Amino acid sequence: MLIAFSSFIQVSGRAQSTDPGASQGPATGQEDPAVTMFDHSKTSRLWISGQVNLILQWHPSFHAKYSGPNSLHPFAENATSRVLTLFTVLRLNPTTEILADVESAGGHGISEALGLAGFTNLDVVRNPSLGNAPYLARLMIHKVIPLSHRTEEIEPGPLSIITRLPVRRFEVRVGKFGMVDFFDQNSVGTDSHLQFLNWTIDNNGAYDYAADTRGYTYGVILEYHQPGMKVRLAEALMPKVANGINLDLNLARARGENIELELDHSLIPGRAGAYRILAYMNHANMGNYREAVDRFLAGLTPVPDITASARQGRVKYGFLGSFEQELSSLVRIYGRTGWNEGQNESFAYTEVNNTVQLGADLKASRWHRNLDRVGAAAVTNGISSEHSRYLALGGLGFLLGDGRLTYGRENIVEGYYTAHLWRGAFFTFDIQNIHNPGYNRDRGPVIVPAVRLHLDF
Looking at residue 438, what is its pLDDT? Predict the structure, then answer.
């Protein structure tokens, strides 16, 4: 998965955080230093920027009673990934713009991104055979439909350079995008380039959102904005097979439907807060865990095979919730919870059927490092009984498969320190502690340290 944006954007050559309530901190009388290599105009009709994200992860050897085809390797290993992204936006008029982004993803993840539901690096493509040739990541038209005369100022960035918008409005986006560019957003735990690295800490693990292997899809997003509330709707293409690169163009048989309600509300007067609920429903050529097991027990397959039970028109649905709350000018907390039906195949994101997470970050102003962040989060992921039985009998998912399974919830704790080096250069040290990798109490625990270099141009 390769979808992430920096938490800071350029404002007249100076940093202004996109974090809710960031402007509510104590005044220092000085502007923060620039956070991009080059200054970006707030008035230009053309936006060009880029990012480089380099991540080195490793882990020592760990205890494992057995391993299978899709296991996290129990021997010590390391892996390096890189993502290069070119962002372009052209504003056609005050309410219309076109976005086109080109990306290149290279390197590898530890164990080629297998063996964990909460994998340790969101930048890793789950199919390394795709190679590192550049590809089109986003191509969409963005149209704003005003519903009021009163406007608000919006800072320009890679997803939009329309800087003044009506406070009540519709927004329409059509084309290629990442679903989590707009859904399941959270200013404390979404950005894998400056914040956490784990798949199920930066995103809701139970959100099996429509996407190809690289994390992108084609579709339509409708948004309604009014003060204190936003509603988002999306219809998008699903992959033809689980974790597939090719999308099914026939919406009558395969599609992903999403709706999210966001309420901008705080429990603490004078501090920013937001609460979101999201529901989704995917239609695709999915397998069913119980049918795959029944076919195996009947001697029809040598091991449970989810692909052998695939049937067009199956539906996978889920419900998610999240919040973020500013506690002070320096500290924010956030959380997510999610559930999906767990009977039909995990198809597009990761193998999680229920999840709960809680985290926080701290702005390092106390030691005069205004652009540094410290973050910590914990997540517990689980799967359904049918999904667990399928894996225990030797079945393989697109991420998991130890050959056997002694089920336990996959529990992950992650912490990071991101330091601002100079202009658009940031360096991060990250560490993750994973218990029951792949939901297996016979394996682990494992510690995964990482370092990350992020450059924003």
Answer: 98
